Amino acid sequence: MLQAFATVFSLNVLIPWILAMALGIFIGAMPGLTATMGVALIVPLTFHMQPIAGLAMILGLSFTAIFAGDIPATFLRVPGTPASGAAVLDGFEMSKQGKGSLAITLDLFCSALGGLIGVVLLITISPTLANFALQFTNFEYFWLGLLGLSMSAVITKGSNTKGLIAVVFGLLISTIGIDISTGYPRFTFGNINLVSGINFIPVMIGLFGLSEVIRDIAVQSQEQLSGAAVVETSHTTPKDVLKVMGRNKRVILQSSLIGTIIGALPGAGADIAAWVSYGFAKKTSKHPEAFGTGSEEGVVAPTTANNAALGGTWIPALVFGIPGDTITAIVLGAMLMYGLKPGPLVFTNNKELINQIFAVALSSQVFVLILGFLGIKAFAFLFRFPRNVVLAGITIFSLIGAYAIRTSIFDVFLVVLFGILGYVMEKVEMPLSPLILGLVLGPMIEDNLRIGLIKTNNQFLPFLTRPISGIFALILVIAFLYEPARSLFKLMRKH
Question: Is residue 25 within 8 Å of 375, Cβ to Cβ?
Fold first, then answer.
C-alpha cells in the first residue's frame, strides 16, 4: 500500500489530480453543472495518461463536485448538484440565521469524513456489500423506491396533505415521455421536447433557485428580504465544527452507512442517499421538529451520506463491473479504454492498480478539505457583492446551467416555469422537496414495478415473497403505522 501512495503522489499523477479537483469545486458550485458532466468532460483528456492518473482525476473531481454543490445550496438555496437537493432544507435556514459559515464548514468536514468512511468500507467489505447488492432485482428496487418516497412524509413541514399533493405532482411529472413498455409517448401533447421526459435538474434549479429570486423581487421592503446569500461575519473555527460533529456522531455514522449501502446499489446514487439519510435522521432524532429550521442534524445527514455514497458506487463497479451510478458508468468505459477489465479478477490481476485507486480515494478526502476551504472563501467573496448583483448572478448562472445540460432552450423555459410554480407553492405553504423526491424516484418505482409484473405475468405476490422484498415491505408498513400506533398508545395510557 505504501508503494501505491508513492505512485499516486508522483508529479505526473498529482498535478492533473489536483487540477481536476479544483475544477470539481467550480462545477459543483455552478447550478446545473453536475459531477457526471464534469467527469464526462475530462475523460477525453485522460486518453494518453497512465490509467491511475485518469482515474485520480475522475475520483477527485467527483468528491469535490459533490461537496461544492452544498455551497450555493447553503447560501443561495440553489442546489449546485442533484446530490445537494436535501442540503437546502437546513443549510439555507442556518445561513438566514447568520450561521452560514458554520453550516458550510460543517458541510466540508462531514463531506470529508463521510467520504473517508465510505472509502474505508469500500476497501474492507467490498465483496460482502457487492454480493448483497447483486441480490437486488426489480422487486427489491421497487420497494427501495417506495421507501425513499415514504421519506416525503418525514421531510414535509406543516400539512402532510400538501406534502402528499406535492409528491403526487412530482410522480405525475415523472411519467411524461416515452412509455418503457409500449414505446408510446405519454403526456407529450405533440411536443418533441417532452418525448425524452422532464429532466429534474432544471426543475430543481427553478423550484429552489429562481423561486427565491422571484420572492425577493416581490418583497417591497429591504427589511423583509428572505436572507439569501447571508454570509456570517464571525469566524468559524475548526474547534467549533468539531464540537458540532461530536454532538452528532451518531448521525454521521448512520448517514455514512446509509450512503455507502445505497451507493452500492446500482442506479441509486448520491442524491437518493442524501434524501433517505435526511429522512432517517429526522425519524430517529430527539428533536425532529427542528428539521427544516436550521437543524445541525439536518445539515450533517445529507452531506455525509452523499459523499459516503461515492465510495459505495465503486463497490459493484470494481467487484462485478456493474456501474453504481452514472459516474462509475463513465469510469467503467474509461477502464476498458485503458485495457482494464473490471470484475472479480481485477483484485488479483490488477492488485497494484486497485491499491492505487484506494490510495487516491483516501488522499482525496484531505484535498477536499483544503480545496473546499479555498472554494468557500472564493464564493463567500462573490456573495458579498450588492444583493441585486447576487440575485442577477443566480438567475444568469441558473439559466446557463440549465441550457448546458442538453443545450436546449426548452430546459431554460422549464427553469422559468418551475421558478414561478415554486414561488406560488411557497405562497400557499406547499413544500417543494416532496415534488423533487417524486420526480427523482418516480421512474425508478414505475420501471421496476412494470418490469417485475411483466416477469411474473402480472402477479404481485412475488414482490412480497422474496426475502429482501418482504423485509422492505414490512419496514414500509411499520414506518406508516408507527406514528398512529404511538398516538393510540398514548391515548390509551391517558385513559
Answer: yes
pLDDT at site 370: 93
CA distance 458 to 111: 43
Q: Is residue 446 included in any domain, yes or no?
A: yes
**Which residue's entry shows cell 393510540?**
488
Alpha carbon 2 to chain centroid distance?
A: 33
CA gyration radius for the chain? 22
More reliable by pLDDT, 130 or 99:
99
From CA 201, how far away is CA 30, in angstroms rounded?
A: 12
Q: Is residue 478 part of a domain?
A: no
How many CB atoms sit inside 10 A of residue 55's CB?
25
pLDDT at 14: 92
Distance between CA 360 and CA 110 in Å, rounded?
19
Domain tally, the chain:
1
The pLDDT score that the predictor gives to residue 19 is: 93
| Alpha-carbon span 141 to 458, nearest angstrom | 17
Q: 124-159 pLDDT, tens per residue? A: 877 676 667 677 788 888 887 887 777 666 556 656
Q: Contact, 60 vs 372, CB < 8 A? A: no
Residue 484 placed within a domain = no
Quote the CA–CA distance of 27 and 65 in Å, as a whole number: 6
Closest CA to 127 of 288, 264, 12, 277: 264
Query: pLDDT of 246-266, one tens digit each?
Result: 989 999 999 999 998 888 776
Task: Give the whole-angstrom CA distance, residue 126 versus residue 129.
Answer: 5
Q: pTM of the prediction? A: 0.72
Instruction: Give a yes or no: residue 462 inside a domain.
Output: no
